[in-house]
């Protein structure tokens, strides 16, 4: 019988070894009856078996049953030790577990710990892979969207969220462009027809220069509400103190004026002239332009040229604020109107005498648009929960990043509100329609990062310039700056020219791929020419990088010398190209 139980206990020990490799089994008299392979590496089996535990270790079993202890071997290795009692057929056994502390750096354990952390944090996390399948959905996200991770992990995003088109998936957008989408407030999930709004940002996951997926972090709205109120309160206090006069515009809430606007194209020059005229009028103004085209830059410049430029410029991004909070932020609150509400002026009151800039107005929910329209018509505002009305006395500049006619047709922008906010209209064309500005702004950003990073870059390589001119710049100037920043980080201190190879791989694929496909589509060039062109470009870039040393270049490209020489001949690469690239 005893033998059977011993075999059984030994089997349990072996099974447990999968999880904790260091196991010692003791009988009731605390004599060691079995040890795992890992313990055999520390002590000789002869010395250990049948010996009493207290002869070998500095702790009593009673202590280890009660709490875990760190044990240091004579060689300096540390183990975490704990004990558990097992009673079987009235026999008592004690299992002592020894966990290598450094094991915590093992991938398996690290992964386990990360999973624990992800499931216990307050922020919602959802992650998808390259195909758009959901691979992670934590508990907090379940709470926010009232969906179950069990049901949706493994599904495509568009299946899980019932999107009408794959393009509606922001994760896929981020995966394809590599550009994060930040501070969104939107509902993707619906419970019994009720939208589950979440406040979130989506980021790409980059590994070895390639994007392999995307993830979003969603915030808890209640917490966010109090944070936002605090931020607004802080801003107000800062503004009222007018801390510094060093920056010429600091005390009115702006940083840009027309002199900061860069661009050599006729379009931008005309636009500045148009905007300068509009600055002298006091009508409400609508600025239309894709994301990152400089709508806020123009709005601030217009304010600073206007006669009320000493008064505040107050900006709010309508897409970033939860719907029920937007109303209190714009119109203000009266103490007690909801839990935690204080007597607080809204932004309309804050902007008195100056300008209120409503960015991404097209994201404002329709119900809120109705309230805004009423305020603009009556030119009076009433704080949430209050009875008293206050006259409003500010210029309203709004910005939208979509075609107004289209969103009116789709019912996302009230037509009457559009007429109210768009007495004057300024349209900023996308960067791809003003190629001259791509280069002038590019040079401006080179200068900016030369200063910041202590580098002395002078220009773009001809290849890079060509690619930049034919890329379609969906993120406009913001994206251009992001790309130049990436180039400038990677270019070496002694280099004078930015080249394609200075870009991370995922950006290269994004901009080169599109360039090539664009040319093929326009039938300007055949696929084989494109491939030849890319091959030539990569080889010449690498030759330049390696100062035309054939051995170094072939190593760099991962091909043998002979193959490199053959390809150079085939592609007509001669060393004179050193000067032209
Ligand atoms: N003409 C310009 N000259 C200099 N910098 C510019 C110009 N246009 C845009 N920028 C820069 O590009 C970035 C984006 O500008 P801005 O925030 O004004 O764009 P936006 O159109 O308001 O974007 P969004 O619609 O996403 O709010 C800023 O860093 C700004 O400094």
3D structure, described in words:
It comes from Crassaminicella thermophila. Keywords: ATP-binding, Nucleotide-binding, Transcription, Transcription regulation. This is PAS domain-containing protein. GO terms for molecular function: ATP binding; sequence-specific DNA binding. The protein has 581 residues and is of the alpha/beta class. The protein has three domains: 102 residues, 2-Layer Sandwich (Beta-Lactamase), CATH 3.30.450; 113 residues, Beta-Lactamase, CATH 3.30.450.20; 204 residues, P-loop containing nucleotide triphosphate hydrolases (Rossmann fold), CATH 3.40.50. Helices cover 45% and strands 20% of the residues. A hairpin with a 4-residue loop joins strand 6 and strand 7. The longest helix has 21 residues. The structure holds adenosine-5'-triphosphate (ATP). The site of adenosine-5'-triphosphate has 16 residues, from helix 13 and helix 21.
Labels describing this entry:
20% strand, Beta-Lactamase, 45% helix, disordered C terminus, 581 residues, 3 domains, Rossmann fold, alpha/beta
